[in-house]
Structure formats: structure tokens, C-alpha cells
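Data availability (excerpt). The following record was deposited with the supplementary files.
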Amino acid sequence: MTGVPGITRSGQAARRPVGFARWSMYGFLALVVLSWGYIFGWTDSGVGDLLSADSWSDSGRFLRQLAGQESDAVPAFARADRWLETAKLAYDTLVMSVLAIGLTGLAAFPTFVFGARNVSSGELGGAPSKSGVALFYAVRLTFAVTRAVPELVWAMIIVFFLSPGVVPGAVALALHNYGVIGKLSSEVVENLDPGPARALRASGAGNLQMLLYGVLPQALPSFLTYLLYRWEVIIRTTVVVGFVAAGGLGREFRLSISLFHYTDVALIIAWYLILVVAVDLASAGLRRLVSGD
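Predicted structure:
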């Protein structure tokens, strides 16, 4: 049989050479096996402690403390007054997340287009300019720096300039997420269909008109979708910035852990579950509006 790919004259399947992708996969699997073998065999990985009876006993005791079984006092999650007190902190946490994502959107919206390489290079129909290239690298560098620094580090820096509260936490979260949203949105612009922008250029449109009518209408739905996704992440990260006295449930969580008030910790975890579910549902509904479903 001739003329059929992969079939020899004798009718047997021809052996295909192993490609680069397959060798890469084999190499990756080998490195994984060797890495885990080294960790378990030649380092103090702590796996033995994890599987020890003492660790499981301590875990069970901690869970019983969270449930209030190790104390005769009424658990915090069973008291209406504690729910009301922590409700104010939950509200502050929600406000922090909304303020953070709002600041992120306000900062990223006017800048993410200039972080796209095809805008600065003139691939969308314009002429490349040195100022456009310089702006591209400046914006991309800003995105890289802001997202490289974790939210907790930003919060530790900002509390030196602002008094502890909701605002420092929101600014810290906004700075980190500005880099994330900016980079993702810039890559969306780089993958856009250049046809509408080039058609506008051919009809005599200027740079601003090309961006407003040829680029932003295509990139805006993805930008808003990324923004809503990051809101879901931010509501979970508020507990981290709260550790440095940035306000909300995070600060109360740190204090409760330090004072061994375990039922208060359980109450705060319950509030976080409520907030995360509420924000996830709200974000999903808003994304459906954005996508037009």
C-alpha cells in the first residue's frame, strides 16, 4: 500500500519519529519524579509529621475548639450580638473590595490600550512613533512592578502614610490588581481583529478616533469580565491585608487567632463564606450582563 501516510508497502504502520513535544513531556515527567523523590528521600519534607498521629490529634482538637466543644462558654457564632458586631466588619470588608476594584478599573481603563504592542507599533494602521514605543514600555513596566509586589507588602508600605482602615487596604489591593488587569487587558488588545481599526484609518480617522471606535468597543467586554473576576479574588484577599491593620474582618481574624478566641475565628470564617458566595453570585450576574447572555 503506497500513498497512504504512515503505512509501509507491507501494510504495517510506519514508525514516526518522537517529536520535541513528546520528549519535553517525558523530560517533565522525569523531573517531577526526581524532584518528589529528592524531597521525600533526602530532605526534611515534613511528610512524616503530617501523617503522624499527633498531627491528626492536634487537628481534631483545633476543629473542636472552632466548634466550641473545648469550652463551657457560649460559642461566638451562637450569639446574636457577636453576629451584629462582626456584621459591621463584614460590611467594611465588602466596601474595601468594591473600592479596590473601582480604583483598579479607574486606573487600568485609560492605560491598558497603551500597553498593547500593536497600538504602539502601528500594526492597527497607524505610523509607529518613538513616543508610542516609549509609552508602551513605561506602561508595561508599571504593570509588571505593581503586580510583582504582593498585596500584603503594598499594605505594609501604605499604612506608613495612611492611618489604618479600609482605605489603605483598598489602595493596596488596587495597586496589585492594576498590574494584573492592565496586562491581561493589553493582551486582549494585541489579539484583536485589526480590520475595524484599519478601516477607520483608511477612512481618515485619527489616533483617538481609532482607539475609541476601533479598539475599545472590542476590548471593553473582556476588560469588564477580567475586572469582575478579580473582584472575586479581591474579596478573598481582604483577609491578608487585614493582617497589617488595614481594617475589616482580616484585622479581627488576626486578633482572634492571637487571643485564642477560636469560636470568633469560626464566626469570621462564616462571614467570609457568606461574602465570597454573595460576590461570586453578583459577579456572575454582572458578567452575564456584560456578555449579553
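Summary of structural features: The chain is about 70% helix and 0% strand.
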